[in-house]
Design brief:
Helices cover 72% and strands 0% of the residues. The chain starts with a helix and ends with a helix. The model has no long low-confidence stretch (mean pLDDT 92).
């Protein structure tokens, strides 16, 4: 993936995660978690694996449970962003 593709992917992933807001705290409350998930996205292509990372990251920080199905749903969207970024010419 080129640098431009990576930047576009990261921006889109950050935007999606900010909109997700699993604990309804507002988009400014997840900077660390967003950074961790976007970093993990670089090396993960399996939505279930990414969902587990998302679940563990957010639950560790906020000590609140997130249903795995919610994490899978957002992970599919993140993986789609990743593969879409790879197709940008």
């Amino acid at each position: 993936m080129s640098i431009l593709e990576n930047i576009k992917m990261n921006q889109a992933a950050v935007h999606l995660l900010e909109e997700w807001d699993p604990f309804h705290l507002g988009p400014d409350h997840y900077d660390t978690e967003t950074a961790d998930v976007v970093a993990a996205l670089q090396g993960i292509d399996d939505p279930s694996v990414l969902a587990k990372v998302i679940q563990e990251t957010y639950e560790h920080s906020f000590e609140q449970w997130i249903p795995f199905e919610d994490c899978v749903a957002i992970s599919y969207k993140l993986i789609a962003i990743k593969f879409e970024a790879k197709c940008i010419i």
